[in-house]
Amino acid sequence: MSTVIGNQIFGKPDSVLEESLNQRLKRQDVNVANITNSLTPGYRSLGFDFEKQLQAAIGSDKDLIMKVSNPKHIKAPGMGADGVLKPDLYVKPTESIGNDGNTVDVDQEMTEMAGNQVIYRATIETLNRKLGMLRYAINGGR
Known about the structure:
Elements: H1 6-9, H2 12-36, E1 46-49, H3 51-58, E2 88-91, H4 106-138
Antiparallel strand pairs: 1-2
Family: Belongs to the flagella basal body rod proteins family.
GO biological process, one term: bacterial-type flagellum-dependent cell motility
Protein name: Flagellar basal body rod protein FlgB
């Protein structure tokens, strides 16, 4: 009798999609905070990047998984020893600073939010299609 292990149904690609959704939600929060503070004197616009860290964490199936003996050890590029993705939250470099010292470009923030939303929705659709295929298989093709 064979047993289906959860990792065989939901594997590494699904974990990557899930982490991508989590990080896109955090990016959305950063963009919203920037727009909210667009009239705050001295506010510096923040950026949030996670794609490079996620790509490094994915690696390939041939990559060796490094074992760590201390949580301060680095497990993989872009990740901590606890296996949690470590995205970059930084002050965006800018050439235009308002008279009040604010660096938020609302048009740029809205553009970033729109692009982030498109990719978020596409990722949700990908996961929904996989669940639909599983539902179809469970119901015996009906």
